[in-house]
Each structure stands twice: as structure tokens, then as C-alpha cells.
Write a structure and sequence with these properties.
The protein is an alpha/beta fold. About 30% of the residues lie in helices and about 25% in strands. It binds ligand EPZ. Ligand EPZ binds next to α1, α5, α6 and α12.
Length: about 425
């Protein structure tokens, strides 16, 4: 990519990856047909559809709409299907809810840090399931599932997929389940809305306390996935970095409040309408202090992108990561581009520089790769981002969307 091109125009935001994945898993809860719209075309979504297919569901896809009919399901999701994507763990809840048993390969290590699923498993145990970990697989079995009061907060706060997983098991349990300390993310609300369309009785999603009245059976439903707030946030930073005016259409400004506030503190102007945001970039950011938190706090999935923005500018910014304390793989690559960043525990201290220079850099994970693309947009010369398969996991056609706004990005196939 060639840096220094001003971006301007309008970009359409895709459906949310982190909403589509658990919603697709939830289709396993019924024998009937489910139709999901606004599903983004991402490799992670392909992995989830492969898992559903492997579990016996009929899956059809026509551009952004996915139709799933899980008339019969098997209950084992093996390593070679699950290892590609951690979020596969969220088929455990629906299978346990429907079939009262499930075997899923335990997710392995992750570059962004330690990611245990102990809270998921404790939740299933509270519903009456027996848990065994054998040969790298987690086996859950519950001849009977009974509603319970379940704490869902760990050392780093609430868990998003943990809340989703337990909610999907509890909708078919006998009696009432209360999830205390639940994650409040918009993606959790979107899943609860879909479950209620299937005939579930979920209340309080979006708050710290979710109450689920178990039902005997669920039916098919049709649903449109919410816009991707992290893709939207990434394009807001791209607009800020490149100093022009970019309008984001099909975005939900309410889900981006803390991202907008952070950009406004850094000196950018944001104009909001019901379903769009316009960012007016004006070049270098002011230095700010930023701390990631669970929703509605500042999202950890936007942390790397903000490091890229704050690398060029005036003064000293600090970025503290409270959800995945080691999530700073992007820092060493940004330093290869001339950024002046030091790490102290879970805080990046960013001394703004006047310019970044293009360089070959290596993507390590989804959001780190987005940060490197954003750094490349503002760097002098050419930046070569390697291993872009990371970015295709969570951004639909990001290079085409940025080029349509005026960037100069070329996707080059690497041999071997
Ligand atoms: C979801 O992951 C997202 N993934 C992540 O986005 C996001 O970073 C994360 O939530 C936090 O917002 C999807 O929705 C598919 P957590 P999840 O459980 O649910 C600890 C991206 O870039 N924890 O909320 O797996 C955990 O280690 C991805 O799109 C436990 O200790 O994250 C972490 O420190 C990356 N025990 C914290 O809680 C548990 O049982 C929050 O993790 C579960 C989690």
C-alpha cells in the first residue's frame, strides 16, 4: 500500500462478525429453517458454516443471506474443524440445550493472550451438566438441565461468548436461569433478540442481569444481523488518519459512543445521524489517555487501531489494555514503521512522531493487522502487510472499500 492518500466519500458497513457467529450457532437449537440476513463474507463465517455442516445442518448461502436447517444434529465438533476459530466454542451451548450433550475440541492458545473458557463450563455445570476434558476435547452431558443463578464475571470482567453460550443452553432448560454479571455487548443483545424470535423467553439482555425462562421447544426465525461496530470504528480511524471526510453508512452510532468520544478527545469531529456517522479528519491527533473496558466502555477490539492513530501526532498518549493485558503484538511492527512506543505492563506509552515510514510488516492477529493497514495509510512510501489472511477473518473486502475511498492498496499473492 502507498501511504499519504486522502480518503473521502461513503463506505457501507457490513454485518457484525461477532454477532453473526453466535447467531449462526443458535440455529442448531431448532429443527426448523432459520434465515439470517446481513451475514458478512468472512473466513470466520465460512468456518462456522463448515462446523454447522459437519454437525449435520443443511446450510445455504446466497450473497449476505444464510439459510440453515438443522433437522438432525450430531453432537461432536472435532479438532480439525474447531481449531481454525476459537468462536467455534459457542456451539457447545446450543448442542447442550437441544441434545443434552456435546463434545467440542477445547480451543488452543491465542496470540492476543490467555483465553480460558472456565466461566462457560462453570455456567453449564450450574445448569446441571457434568463436564469432562478428555484428549483435548471438552465433553458436556446433562440428562436434565435445570435453571440456576449463574455468575458470569471473571478476573477481567464479564465474558461475551460465555454469556452467549450459557444463554443458548438455558433457553431449553427446565425453569428459570439468572445470569449475573452478564456481558452487555450489543452482540449479546442481538443474539437474545434472535432467540426470542425463535420462541425463547430472554429478558434483560444488554444489562448485567439476564433472566431466561426455559421453554420446551424453539421454532425457526428470520433475522438481520446488526452492523459491525468494530469495522465501523476501524473506518472512523482511517478517516481521522487520512485527514478528510468519510461517511459511514449502515452503522449504529449508539454502539460507537466511546470510540466517537475518544476521537473527539483526540481533536476530530464526528457528525451523527440515525444510521450513519461522518468523521472529519484534520490530520494529527492530540495525545489522549485510553483504557479498554467491557461494553459500554472502550472496546479492546479497537485498541490496536487507536495505537496506530496516536503513533503520529503531538505529545504522549497512553493506552491501557484491561481485557487482554498482553494484546500488544502490533507494537513491535508499528515501531518498525518509526513509531515511538514503550510497553509498561498492560500500558502502551506512545510518544507521537511527526511521520511514519512505510516498511514490510507482519500481521499477527485480526485487529493488529487492521492497525498495520491504518499505519500504512498514513506512512511515507510503501508498506507491505504480510499474512493478510488475518484481516480477511474479520473485514469484508477492506482493501476494496478503502480503495473506493481513495487509498492505494494492492493485494499481492505470495508464493509458498
Ligand atoms: C469476544 O471474545 C470477541 N469475539 C472478541 O473479539 C473480543 O475481543 C472479546 O469478546 C472481548 O470483547 C467474538 O465475539 C467472536 P471474553 P470472547 O470471553 O467472548 C477472560 C475480535 O477481534 N475469560 O469476553 O472469547 C478472557 O480471557 C475478537 O473480533 C475468562 O477468564 O472474550 C478475557 O481476558 C478477538 N474465562 C476476558 O475474560 C472465561 O471463561 C474477556 O473475554 C472466558 C473469558
Amino acid at each position: 500500500m502507498h501511504g499519504g492518500h486522502k480518503l473521502s466519500g461513503t463506505v457501507n458497513i457490513s454485518g457484525s462478525k461477532n454477532s453473526a457467529l453466535p447467531i449462526l450457532a443458535a440455529t442448531l437449537l431448532t429443527k426448523d429453517e432459520c434465515v439470517i440476513h446481513h451475514v458478512p463474507d468472512l473466513s470466520d463465517v465460512h468456518f462456522m458454516l463448515q462446523i454447522l455442516d459437519h454437525l449435520g445442518a443443511q446450510v445455504e448461502r446466497a450473497s449476505g443471506t444464510v439459510t440453515v436447517k438443522a433437522e438432525k444434529v450430531t453432537t461432536e465438533a472435532p479438532y480439525d474443524v474447531v481449531r481454525k476459530m476459537r468462536a467455534s466454542v459457542c456451539v457447545l451451548g446450543p448442542l447442550l440445550g437441544r441434545e443434552r450433550e456435546a463434545t467440542v475440541s477445547l480451543p488452543g492458545g491465542c496470540v492476543i493472550g490467555d483465553r480460558p473458557i472456565d466461566l462457560h463450563l462453570k455456567g453449564f455445570e450450574a445448569l446441571g451438566a457434568a463436564i469432562r476434558v478428555v484428549g483435548g476435547d471438552v465433553k458436556v452431558l446433562a440428562p436434565q438441565l435445570r435453571g440456576a443463578v449463574i455468575p458470569m464475571t471473571g478476573k477481567f470482567g464479564s465474558t461475551v461468548l460465555g454469556t452467549d453460550n450459557v444463554m443458548m443452553a438455558a433457553v431449553l432448560a427446565d425453569g428459570t436461569t439468572v445470569i449475573d454479571g452478564a456481558a452487555e455487548e450489543p452482540e449479546v443483545v442481538d443474539l437474545a433478540n434472535f432467540l426470542n424470535k425463535m420462541g425463547a423467553k430472554v429478558e434483560g439482555a444488554g444489562s448485567r442481569r439476564i433472566i431466561i425462562e426455559g421453554v420446551k421447544e424453539l421454532h425457526g426465525a428470520e433475522h438481520e444481523v446488526i452492523p459491525d461496530r468494530i469495522e465501523a470504528g476501524t473506518f472512523m480511524v482511517a478517516a481521522a488518519i487520512s485527514g478528510a471526510e468519510v461517511k459511514l453508512r449502515r452503522a449504529n452510532p449508539a454502539h460507537l459512543a466511546t470510540v466517537s468520544q475518544a476521537l473527539e478527545r483526540a481533536g476530530y469531529r464526528i457528525q451523527v445521524t440515525v444510521n450513519s456517522l461522518t468523521v472529519l479528519g484534520n490530520g494529527e491527533p492530540h495525545s489522549i489517555e485510553l483504557t479498554t473496558e467491557t461494553y459500554p466502555g472502550f472496546p479492546t477490539d479497537m485498541q490496536a487501531q487507536m495505537c496506530a492513530l496516536l503513533s503520529r501526532g503531538q505529545g504522549i498518549s497512553t493506552v491501557t489494555e484491561n481485557i487482554f493485558p498482553q494484546r500488544f503484538m502490533h507494537v513491535s511492527e508499528l515501531k518498525r514503521m518509526g513509531a515511538n512506543i514503550s510497553l509498561e505492563n498492560n500500558t502502551a506509552i506512545i510518544n507521537g512522531v511527526t511521520a511514519l515510514s512505510g516498511a514490510p510488516v507482519m500481521a499477527s492477529d485480526l485487529r493488529a493487522s487492521a492497525a498495520l493497514v491504518l499505519a500504512g495509510l498514513q506512512a511515507d512510501g510503501v508498506t507491505e502487510v504480510n499474512r493478510v489472511y488475518h484481516i480477511d477473518r474479520g473485514y469484508e473486502m477492506i482493501d476494496e472499500k478503502l480503495n473506493a475511498l481513495g487509498a492505494q492498496i494492492e493485494r499481492v499473492k505470495v508464493k509458498g
